[in-house]
């Protein structure tokens, strides 16, 4: 690698993206630093970390003066319907859903935490909502299908139940899979499908 003799040339080389430029460390000209692509360890994961998958599709803040408590979870549907397990005043979740509206498309599952008096942070993750016409005895279903072998838990207990609508929904995506489904109302379920 050629190094410029004149410091002005190094600055010009840096601005132009030239390979001739090498940043300095501790005042030593020509010594590559870990933040410079010329450094031999630049691409080592320990130097810059391994990027994590995004946990949320959107994160916003909003004022929700009518919302009690310090934490709330809800599911928003495309038609604007909001589901939550908490007993809340009418329309108290609306400011949180409105804040997310421009950042994430429904349906989504949201988690909100109070930050200050009326200020909340709210994060949303897109989910699938599936109509399940079968009569399921519980509010939560975990189904694993691997090479034709089925295992099902209903409310965390082994069960012999069959839920063809959930199994067909997952089978359209993967041959072997795990389905986690939580009841929203009589027919609608929040569903996550992962491949095996």
Task: State the main characteristics.
196 residues, alpha+beta, 3 domains, 6-stranded antiparallel beta sheet, 11 strands, 15% helix, 32% strand, globular
Please, could you describe this protein's structure?
This protein is α+β, with helices and mostly antiparallel strands and 196 residues long. The chain has 3 domains: 1-51, no CATH class; 58-126, no CATH class; 130-195, no CATH class. The chain is 15% helix and 32% strand. It is built from 4 helices and 11 strands, in the order ααβββαββββββαββ. The strands form 2 sheets. Strands 6-11-10-7-8-9 form a 6-stranded antiparallel sheet, with helices on one face. It has a 5-stranded antiparallel sheet with strand order 1-5-4-2-3, with helices on one face. A hairpin with a 4-residue loop joins strand 4 and strand 5. The longest helix has 10 residues, at 7-16. It is globular and about 50 Å long. It starts with 6 loop residues before the first helix and ends with a strand. 20% of the residues are buried. Residues 18-28 have low confidence and may be disordered.
């Amino acid at each position: 690698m050629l190094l410029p003799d004149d410091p002005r040339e190094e600055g010009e080389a840096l601005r132009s993206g030239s390979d001739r430029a090498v940043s300095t460390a501790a005042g030593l000209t020509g010594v590559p630093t870990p933040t410079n692509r010329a450094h031999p360890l630049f691409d080592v994961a320990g130097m810059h970390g391994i990027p994590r998958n995004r946990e949320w599709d959107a994160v916003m803040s909003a004022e929700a003066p009518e919302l009690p408590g310090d934490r709330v979870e809800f599911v928003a549907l495309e038609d604007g319907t909001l589901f939550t397990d908490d007993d809340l005043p009418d329309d108290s979740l609306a400011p949180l859903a409105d804040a997310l509206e421009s950042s994430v498309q429904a349906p989504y599952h949201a988690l909100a935490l109070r930050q200050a008096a009326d200020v909340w942070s709210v994060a949303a993750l897109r989910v699938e909502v599936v109509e399940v016409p079968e009569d399921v005895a519980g509010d939560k279903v975990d189904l694993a299908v691997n090479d034709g072998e089925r295992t099902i838990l209903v409310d965390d207990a082994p069960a012999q139940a069959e839920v063809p609508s959930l199994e067909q929904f997952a089978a359209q995506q993967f041959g072997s899979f795990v389905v986690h489904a939580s009841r929203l109302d009589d027919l609608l379920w929040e569903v996550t499908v992962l491949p095996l």
